[in-house]
């Protein structure tokens, strides 16, 4: 069996794992600091697990935005990001150079989407969206089971949608102010609520505006991506579980009767928490590692067949 490692590179925390898709054998977590220190620590962890042989491939599921196109000259590099010190950082190259093996790279939310699609809440779905609401707000999109890539990768957290009537909060996004990340990410909610979101009671009326904003996001995704499942993870949704049903209840009215199948009951089964919890991102990184190894082996098989 091939030896695979995964790195979930988050804006706040990095998780390094050893295992196989569907199984985590070793795990290490530490704070994400600067790019060199963080990647070196991840590489050292993987080296420490070598035992009798090095790893065969590594998958990196990283915060972004990232250049994921293999045709781009800056493939594997971080683009402009609010994470201090990371803009322009090489992400995939240092890992490949240090470990001498194939490296698969995608966003952390695309990685989590792959894991929930294969092992979790979106099994059997052709199309799905994985949202994470925490330090930031990100979204991974799978179409026919494959991550959506194009000009870049989906940047769902930075869309602007209709604001709740009377809401004058300017937003907390350094780039766009009142985009979705600027309205309902953890730091944005802390600014709006005046305290850490986990300290605000579930029945506090202050949650009404956040529920409105999330409902707008769900309606937009339903109308544009047409997902069979929207999986919502991250610390905000996990620590305030009332927020998801509050938002779902508002979606039918936003759709205005246009999609008759999107009843509140149907949406409650379609918009769900993750089944894999905190393992979704690391498990997705292991799937990316397996894919990178398969991509490397494919040309050799083609030549052998010729």
UniProtKB/TrEMBL annotation:
**What are its cofactors?**
Mg(2+)
- Protein name, entry field: fructokinase
Q: EC number(s) on record?
A: 2.7.1.4
Q: Which Pfam families would you find in this protein's record?
A: ROK (PF00480)
Q: Which residues cross the membrane?
A: none
Give UniProt keywords alphabetically.
Answer: Kinase, Magnesium, Metal-binding, Transferase, Zinc
Q: Which GO terms describe its molecular function?
A: fructokinase activity; metal ion binding
Q: What InterPro entries does this protein map onto?
A: ATPase_NBD, Carb_Metab_Reg_Kinase/Isom, ROK, ROK_cs
Reactions mediated catalytically: D-fructose + ATP = D-fructose 6-phosphate + ADP + H(+)
Q: Which PROSITE patterns match?
A: ROK
In the record, what lineage is assigned to the organism producing the protein?
Answer: Bacteria, Pseudomonadati, Pseudomonadota, Alphaproteobacteria, Sphingomonadales
Please give the superkingdom of this protein's source: Bacteria
């Amino acid at each position: 069996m091939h030896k695979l490692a995964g790195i979930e590179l988050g804006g706040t925390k990095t998780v390094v794992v050893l295992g196989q898709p569907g199984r985590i054998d070793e795990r290490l977590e530490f704070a994400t600091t600067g790019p060199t220190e963080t990647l070196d620590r991840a590489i050292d962890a993987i080296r420490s697990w070598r035992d009798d042989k090095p790893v065969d491939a590594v998958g990196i599921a990283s915060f972004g935005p990232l250049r994921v196109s293999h045709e781009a000259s800056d493939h594997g590099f971080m683009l402009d990001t609010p994470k201090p010190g990371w803009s322009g950082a090489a992400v995939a190259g240092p890992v490949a150079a240090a470990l001498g093996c194939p490296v698969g790279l995608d966003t952390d939310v695309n990685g989590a989407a792959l894991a929930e699609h294969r092992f979790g809440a979106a099994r059997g779905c052709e199309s799905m969206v994985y949202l994470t609401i925490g330090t930031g707000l990100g979204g991974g999109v799978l179409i026919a089971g494959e991550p959506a890539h194009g000009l870049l990768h989906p940047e769902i957290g930075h869309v602007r949608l209709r604001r709740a009537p009377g809401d004058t909060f300017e937003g907390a996004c350094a780039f766009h102010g009142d985009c979705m990340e600027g309205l309902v990410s953890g730091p944005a909610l802390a600014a709006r609520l005046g305290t850490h979101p986990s300290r605000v009671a579930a029945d506090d009326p202050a949650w009404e505006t956040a529920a409105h904003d999330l409902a707008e996001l769900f309606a937009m995704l339903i109308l544009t991506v047409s997902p069979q499942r929207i999986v919502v993870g991250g610390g905000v949704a996990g620590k305030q579980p009332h927020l998801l049903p509050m938002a779902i209840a508002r979606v039918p009215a936003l759709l205005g009767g246009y999609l008759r199948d999107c009843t509140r009951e149907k949406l409650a089964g379609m918009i769900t928490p993750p089944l894999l919890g905190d393992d979704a991102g690391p498990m997705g990184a292991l799937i990316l590692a397996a894919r990178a190894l398969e991509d490397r082996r494919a040309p050799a098989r083609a030549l052998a067949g010729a």
